[in-house]
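Example record used in the benchmark description.
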Amino acid sequence: MPSAAIEFVDVTFSRPGLRVLDHFNLLVEPGNVLALVGRSGAGKSTLLKLVNRLLVPDAGTVRVDGRDTREWDPIVLRRRIGYVLQDVGLFPHMDVAANVMIVPRLAGWDSERARGRAGELLDLVGLRAGEFAARWPDELSGGQRQRVGVARALAVDPPILLMDEPFGALDPVTRVELHAEFRRIQDRLRKTVIIVTHDMGEAFALGDLVGVLDEGRLIACDRPEVLVQSKDPRVKRLLDSVTTLTRARGSTTRARESTLEREV
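Model output (C-alpha cells):
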C-alpha cells in the first residue's frame, strides 16, 4: 500500500483570470480524516474535483493510491471514491433503497446483492432499512436525506470519501448528531476522508488533521490541538471567528435568560 492515499505535488490550477491553486502540496495518509477550511474562493471544492478527476491540473500531479489521476480510467477512479455533497442530489423518482443501489447496479451487481448492501448501509447510517428503504426522498428530513447520501457514497465500499460541505445546510442540532454519527462510522470503517467546510468548529470536531487554505496554498495542516496554537494571522482569523460566534451565541443565550427572568 502506498504511504499516501491522496497526494498533491506542486499542483497549479487556474480558471480564466484566476489562479485557484498555486503550487499546492498535500499528503493524506490512508485512514485519516482531513478537514479543509478557508475563506470562500480558497480552492477547497476545486481540490476535491481534482482528486476524482472532474478536473485535471494545469501543472503538477495529483496522485490517488500512488498513481497520477491522468493515468486512471475515470470511471474506475470514481468508483474508488465516494462523493457526498451539501445538496445530496437524491433522485426523487426512486425510493431510498434504489438511490443507494445506483452505483452497485452500475458496477454490475445483481439486484439481490445490491439491495442487501443498501439495507446494510441504511442500518449503518442510523436509518432502519425496514422503515426507510421504501420511502421517497421527499418523505425524509434534511438530516435523513444526508444520511442516505452518505450510504450511497459508501455503496461499493470505496477506500476514499470526499465530502463537500456535507452538513452545511442542516440545523445546528442535526449537524451535531451527524457529526457523532460520522465519527462512529469512521471508527468502524477507517476510510481516507477529505471534508471541505467553512466551519472551523466542524473541522475540529471531525478532522484528525485540519488544513487551512489561503490564496490557493496550504498554509497550515496539523492536529486540531496543535493548530489552535498557531500564530499565523491567517489561521488566527479563522480561529477568532469561532470565538466570536461562540461569544455571540453566549450573549444571546444570556439575554434570553434575563428576559425570561424578568417575565417570571
